[in-house]
Amino acid sequence: MTTVAIVPEPTDSGRLAYRAISGSRQSLGKTAGEALDALTASLPREEAGTLVIVQHHHPDELFTAQQQARLRELMSRWRALRDASTTLPPGEQAELDALVEAEVRAAGERAAALLKKLEP
User: Fold this and answer.
1) Which of 104, 15, 102, 98 has the alpha carbon at shortest distance from 53?
2) Within 1-120, where are the H helices?
3) With 82 labelled, which of 8, 40, 95, 112 sits at a CA distance of 20 to 30 A?
4) Which residues are within 8 A (CB) of 80 and not within 5 positions of it... i.e. 6 or more apart?
């Protein structure tokens, strides 16, 4: 089964766009559904089976409010620096990478818990 992450991204106009990411594939849409549809249309047939779990990004014991705030802060800096054709300092990039990994791990744990509830 294909795993897809959909993340909101602020646009230059101040609105949100949504990026769907699966491995090296990405798509951008005005809504999460549009981004997901564009991504799944580009997947090979053997990867077309997709389970969608919507996470509303509320803090929990797996990814806290402090972690969310720091991730938002670092992502904002990362985008600004990217737009200026530069990068985060190595320490901040490592911190950002660790937070992204922690968020993905937390999402996996939530999904596993949900799957366990769905199993007979």
Assistant:
1) 104
2) 32-41, 65-83, 90-118
3) 40
4) none
Short-list 51, 95, 47, CA closest to 71: 95
Q: Taking the CA atoms of the chain, what radius of gyration do you get in angstroms?
A: 16
Q: What is the pLDDT of residues 33-64, one digit of tens each?
A: 999 999 988 888 877 666 666 666 789 999 99
* Helices 65-83 & 90-118 angle (0-180, nearest 10): 130
**Cβ neighbours of residue 49 closer than 8 Å, sequence gap 6 or more:** 1, 2
Q: Residue 120 corresponds to which amino acid?
A: P
For residue 30 the two structure tokens come to 């005005």
Residues 6+ apart with CB under 8 A from 67: 59, 99, 102, 103
Three-class secondary structure assignment of 27-57: EEECCHHHHHHHHHHCCCHHHCCECCCCCCC
Whether pLDDT at 11 is above 70 = yes
